[in-house]
């Protein structure tokens, strides 16, 4: 059982506050650290990994301080976000070096390479690897010593769907084995697919914590705004406003489009195409106008 | 206190293609100059002293030191790959000491060896001049490697600062301001060279005891401080 405790942690750089009084406990299983870009996820992960001192507060792993305690790395595996990783080496040389630095040998390295299914390319130079291959070799280097805590900073960035699925499968397995796995992401769907437990960070603050479904519901229950263009905007507007799923419609004459505010997301998305069909109206464009993560998160913070 | 894996990672990075080219260029230039001088002017003790003192020890050794010393750690800190060393149960001083040993070895190979060869070409080690400057280069390699490794650990502009020190302080100030010479790795190593030749061909502004103490002090302090800095090295995120 490995538990990472973040206790009233703040971190500022000069007079910019990157992380503001965050308290959370990360236990076994997969936890997603969710937040928009620039929310302080990397700062938080760097503090969890002992690469950055908290300005105030403490980060401990089963009671042991993480900062300035190199022995703690016997229990922590780190997959950094940055790409750089001794490109002149082959994948195998790199993972073997990581194993040796843990006092382990080539056997441990080989096992880790097998775990991430990189044996086929292990003798190629890292410089020739694709993003997904690099990610997997990084993963192997973090797994050589069989750590009980795994920290991954934006591990899915730049991966193609197949690689993403493979890595998710691997992380799920690690979580099921009882390891404490924490990964950060700014993409809702990634977190949804992988983590049951979610910690949400927005603008350096701990915005929400808990079961993903509850947080997702909070996110989808918020009012949604859409921009819709059709063959007959006014007829469509009249038909839509009659339904309780819509709370407001503006005919934007300059844009030649409708701005619709929907209160019941599920019902509205089913209603719109049906109404259009019944009235013989062609839908030319339907686009969510406030789907940026920032707006989703800011709603969440307010909730 | 020495980790073979850290050493391997360090020298493979250090002797990567581009850096190896820079490291090899200056020694090659020294050998070319030595050969040309010998062919044009013949063997002469004073000329040998001028070339070895003026170019090899004053310019080549510190520049090789800058490249090897800062290159042993600076690029890893810059690109973030140092995280793979830091996320291991390794004592931070072990990392620094290992990198220092590699940096010293590389500086010695790329500065002392060509100095010896150039000396042999210039006057066939007459008056022990070639050996004296080689010893000076060896001694200076240790201090430069330690100094520039520290620079590489504390600053992102290590190469520029190193060049400023090597060229402005050692070369310019050293020749203009007498006091600056007391605080110059070059003068310290010349004191050692003076001891080796025994004569007055090679001279230094600093006495041997002072030079020895200062060389040792700078090397030890720089290494200790670099280890300390690495212990609290902060990795900034991308954001």
UniProtKB/TrEMBL annotation, chain A:
The keyword Transport applies. Keywords: ATP-binding, Nucleotide-binding, Transport. GO terms for molecular function: ATP binding. Gene3D superfamilies: P-loop containing nucleotide triphosphate hydrolases. Residues 4-228 form the ABC transporter domain. PROSITE patterns: ABC_TRANSPORTER_1, ABC_TRANSPORTER_2. Belongs to the ABC transporter superfamily. This is ABC transporter ATP-binding protein. It comes from Streptomyces tropicalis.
From TrEMBL, chain B:
The keyword ATP-binding does not apply. Keywords: Membrane, Transmembrane, Transmembrane helix. The chain crosses the membrane at residues 20-41, 53-74, 95-122, 128-151, 158-180, 206-226. The keyword S-adenosyl-L-methionine does not apply. Pfam families: ABC2_membrane_2. This is ABC transporter permease. It comes from Streptomyces tropicalis.
């Amino acid at each position: 059982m490995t538990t990472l405790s973040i206790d009233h942690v703040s971190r500022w750089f000069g007079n910019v506050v990157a992380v503001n009084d965050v308290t959370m406990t990360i236990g076994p299983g997969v936890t997603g650290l969710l937040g928009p870009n620039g929310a302080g996820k990397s700062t938080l992960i760097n503090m969890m990994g002992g690469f950055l001192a908290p300005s105030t507060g403490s980060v401990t792993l089963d009671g042991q301080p993480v900062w300035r305690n190199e022995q703690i790395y016997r229990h922590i595996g780190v997959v950094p976000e940055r790409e750089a990783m001794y490109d002149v080496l082959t994948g195998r040389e790199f993972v073997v070096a990581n194993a040796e630095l843990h006092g382990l040998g080539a056997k441990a390295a080989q096992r880790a390479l097998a775990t991430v299914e990189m044996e086929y390319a292990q003798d190629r130079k890292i410089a020739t690897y694709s993003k997904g291959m690099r990610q997997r070799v990084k993963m192997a280097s973090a797994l050589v010593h069989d750590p009980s805590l795994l920290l991954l900073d934006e591990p899915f960035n730049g991966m193609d769907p197949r690689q993403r699925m493979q890595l998710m499968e691997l992380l799920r397995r690690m979580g099921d084995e009882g390891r404490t796995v924490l990964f950060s992401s700014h993409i809702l769907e990634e977190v949804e697919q992988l983590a049951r437990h979610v910690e949400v960070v927005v603008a350096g603050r701990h915005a929400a914590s808990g079961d993903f479904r509850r947080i997702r519901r909070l996110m989808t229950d918020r009012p949604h705004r859409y921009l819709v263009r059709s063959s007959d905007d006014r007829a469509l507007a009249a038909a839509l406003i009659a339904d309780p799923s819509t709370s407001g419609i503006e005919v934007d004459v300059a844009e030649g489009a409708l701005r619709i505010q929907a209160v019941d997301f599920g019902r509205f998305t089913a209603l719109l195409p049906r109404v259009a069909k019944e009235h013989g109206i062609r839908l030319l464009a339907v686009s969510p106008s406030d789907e940026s993560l920032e707006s989703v998160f800011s709603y969440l913070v307010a909730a | 206190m020495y980790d073979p894996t850290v050493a391997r990672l360090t020298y493979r990075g250090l002797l990567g293609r581009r850096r190896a080219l820079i490291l090899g260029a200056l020694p090659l230039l020294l050998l070319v100059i030595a050969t040309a001088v010998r062919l044009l002017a013949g063997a002469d003790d004073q000329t040998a002293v001028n070339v070895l003192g003026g170019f090899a020890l004053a310019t080549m050794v510190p520049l090789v030191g800058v490249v090897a010393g800062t290159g042993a750690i600076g690029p890893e800190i810059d690109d973030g790959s140092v995280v793979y060393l830091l996320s291991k149960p390794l004592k931070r001083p072990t990392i620094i000491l290992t990198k220092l040993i590699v940096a010293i070895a590389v500086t010695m190979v790329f500065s002392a060896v060509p100095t010896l060869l150039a000396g042999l070409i210039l006057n066939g080690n007459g008056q022990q001049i070639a050996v004296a400057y080689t010893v000076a280069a060896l001694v200076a390699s240790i201090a430069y490697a330690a100094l520039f490794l520290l620079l590489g650990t504390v600053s992102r502009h290590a190469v520029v600062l190193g060049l400023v020190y090597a060229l402005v302080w050692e070369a310019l100030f050293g020749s203009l301001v007498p006091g600056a010479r007391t605080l110059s790795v070059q003068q310290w190593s010349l004191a050692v060279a003076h001891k080796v030749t025994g004569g007055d061909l090679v001279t230094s502004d600093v006495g041997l005891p002072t030079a020895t103490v200062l060389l040792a002090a700078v090397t030890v302090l720089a290494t200790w401080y670099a280890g300390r800095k690495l212990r609290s090295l902060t990795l900034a995120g991308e954001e």
